[in-house]
Design brief:
Length: 133
């Protein structure tokens, strides 16, 4: 450790091991508080993005039906007819291929899309299954 002589006295430059350990303990304590909050906010953001994507696609399906009198047969039909710019990515599964296409209620006709749901497994922070949104 280097010494500095000022007016005939020796002063050590640097930190002791105890001081460094105290600072590291304080940083660890702050991280233990901040990291869970950060991860919770990431999950909240994904759930909000999922709700927004579902609302956007459902609105496009409704507009398609209102304009044409029939429901779309595929999601690319919504893009082709310019009701959507692209198929949104499911933020929970990170894929645009996992959407569950729901047929018209009361029919087994899978040739039309009446509704869309997330294909994500698991439940939200509130305990609801993503597939039921």
């Amino acid at each position: 450790m280097a010494y500095l002589i000022v007016t005939g006295k020796f002063f050590r430059r640097g930190f002791t091991l105890i001081e460094l350990l105290v600072v590291m303990a304080i940083i660890a304590m702050l991280l233990s508080i901040a990291v869970p909050r950060y991860l919770r906010s990431v999950d909240d953001a994904r759930e909000a993005a999922l709700k927004s994507s579902l609302a956007q696609v459902r609105e496009a399906i409704d507009h398609f039906y209102a304009d044409r009198g029939v429901y779309p047969q595929t999601l690319p039909d919504l893009i082709e007819k310019r009701y959507l710019r692209s198929i949104p990515v499911d933020p929970i599964t990170d894929s645009a291929q996992t959407w569950q296409l729901m047929p018209l209620p009361g029919t087994e006709d899978a040739a039309v899309i009446y509704d869309i749901r997330s294909g994500a497994q698991g439940v939200s922070r509130l305990g609801e299954a993503y597939a039921n949104w």
